[in-house]
Amino acid sequence: MCGRYVLEDVEDISERFKVPPLVGFERPTFNAAPTQRLPIVFVGEGARVAEPIRWGLSPTWRRPDGKAAPTLFNARSETVAEKATFRRLLRGYRCLVPANGFYEWSTEAGKRVPHRFTVDDGDLFAFAGLWDPGKDGERDPAFTILTTRPNDLVAPFHDRMPVILRPDLEAFWLDPEVDEPALLEPVYEPFPAERMAVRGADPRVNDVRNDDPGLLDTEESGRDPDDSDR
Fold it and tell me: Residues 57-68: what's their mean pLDDT?
């Protein structure tokens, strides 16, 4: 899954994803979390745009006890074409979610220990996302991040990982002419482990109120995948 991530290179989003300068989101975040407003890239009026919107879709259905359904900040790629909440979005509202890394946790000596995963030495990349433009007076625009099975690097820490798009697939993912779900399935393959790295992270990342560069502990995690407790 993906419940926290890093977006350091905010100023590079425009050039990296070929969009006009981002407005309304000027500073980096080192502890992006659900319900926060975060930048996404999507096709609007025939051209790519970048806007900050809420992370986490609000389903219209309710639980059996009448309470609101939980916020959907992730969507399983294996079933995204089947679920009513996501089916329409998959056909017409796909997006890129810029990031420089994401966090996963292990349990060591009874404590949750965070680890930071990066791509290509920390370069800016994109998660595959879906977004809902919302409805005036009823719900605000929001997005979710797709997940898939883990690669060999992530597997010791979690049984899911975010769908990370290869740069050559980003335009394909955004292409509004691609509206057949079966054509999108190759995109969901786990990102190559050899292009990723995992490092330690400051335990303060466990609290979403902490958001500063000190969370990016740069020491290698030093974990052997065979020693995983997951």
Answer: 63
Q: What is the CATH number of domain 5-101+124-150+161-196?
A: 3.90.1680.10
Closest Cα partner for 115 from 226, 5, 227, 229? 5
Q: Does the structure show a pLDDT above 70 at 223?
A: no
Higher pLDDT, 217 or 118: 118
Residue identified by tokens 């433009």 is: 133
Residues tagged active-site? 2, 104
Q: Report the pLDDT value the prediction gives residue 226, as an integer from 0 to 100.
A: 36
